[in-house]
């Protein structure tokens, strides 16, 4: 594991400007409108919005009205707003993958959000600080704004996990290319001991996502972070809350934990080296496995009963995930929302 990883001390560091921001959106303009003053106060210069197409004509009319409303509000701010409005509904997985691909054509690093989040300026400060600190740290693939298990002794050290928490996160172009190339490979390799419930859980989930059985982009990411021993930086306190338990949600229909978690304040601090040990990473991994993902002993037997369940369950998509991603033509230019 990392013998030395940058940690934050208690001296506040003010950031003068923010990395570019991508919002992967669908139908929630009310949340995006709340983001705008935060972006403005933190010096965001470029905001990218990748909008998935509506599923039906009624939603299409609502989305047109939403865009008109957003355009009016964007005019009040100085930052550039670049829009990619999709022509057909892609679903969450393909929408996210292709949106990030589009974003990183133009930006070397950035912050990635969806339209169902609540956060304040501390998240942007934290993400920008970590993008600077961890750029050269090869084991770190991403930075998250989520923290569901605060340190009980109250210390302000960063935490690290093999789990990517993606309700508000950030990464770099080069690391996204690594993530992207590893995620969309069609082979499902071992993630560790073949008799582990965790390994069985993620191997089956990865297979289901890649073959189009389910519509999820983050499950293949989880499996690759474990396989390649890559880490996600976690803040000492929760900085982003998922508030998207509504009719537009795909995976979060009920407002249950860990949704709707309070957003807390932290001091964004100067860098200082300190050792990070495997035991500390494993502690967070174990908590997330058992409490967040609810992986249990019964999942050890998933390779036995999952194929039977899948045989009698309708496939979400006829095409594998990689084919659906490849079928999307990603724009090579940026179009202002005002054009």
Structure description:
The protein is α/β, with parallel strands linked by helices. It is globular. The strands form three sheets. An eight-stranded mixed β-sheet has the order 4-3-2-5-9-7-10-8, sandwiched between helices. Strands 1-12 form a two-stranded antiparallel sheet. The protein has a two-stranded antiparallel sheet with strand order 6-11. It has ten helices and twelve strands. The N and C termini lie far apart (49 Å). Mean pLDDT is 86; it is low at 1-16.
Largest sheet, strands/sense/barrel: 8 strands, mixed
Treating each run of at least 4 consecutive H or I residues as one helix, how many helices? 10
Question: Which residue ranges are poorly predicted, with pLDDT under 50 across at least 5 consecutive positions?
Answer: 1-16
Residues in β-strands, percent: 15-25%
> What's the gyration radius in Å?
20 Å
- What portion of residues is helical? 25-40%
- Average of per-residue pLDDT values: 86
Order of helices and strands: EEHEHEHEEHEEEHHHEEEHHH
Number of strands: 12
Based on Cα principal axes, name the global outline. globular
Q: How many angstroms does the end-to-end distance come to? A: 49 Å
Pairing-aware structural class of the strands and helices?
alpha/beta
Can you list the strand order of the major beta sheet? 4-3-2-5-9-7-10-8
